[in-house]
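Worked example

This section walks through a single chain of length 141. The input is the sequence exactly as stored; nothing has been trimmed or padded.
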Amino acid sequence: MATTETSGTELVVRVFERAWNEGTYDETNFTSDYRAHGITEGPADLAGEREVVAAFRTAFPDLHKHPEDVLADGDRVALRYTMHGTHEGELMGVPASGAEVNATGTYVYRLQDGRIVESWLNYDAMGIMQQIGAIDGQAIK
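Given that input, the structure is written out below as tokens.
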């Protein structure tokens, strides 16, 4: 792996783990026009992403997301993760269920000059909603 790809993967893992597992962001890791696709229905910027992360961390106080695979190609870094947490607070209008939740997801980040410009998130929202009792998984075949 090239040095720039190595530094890109290190940046992405550090930003991902600090955001989701600690609730902290270093804004110097993002460009001022950063766009977050797929994480929020509100503003698709860093503020919108922070709101979603805070909501998940409130709903799952013991939330832990673990990077499983991190792959780089040019200005893109893909990160596949697993998550675990206990649903102890409201999530998207669903009251705390006490359910243990396990899910997976994938981020793709685009980097420019050592900073994150854009990200795309795809995660098992349906699985999370089933596990916290928001939807009945029996209807899905």
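What to look for: Helices lie at 3-22, 46-59, 125-131.
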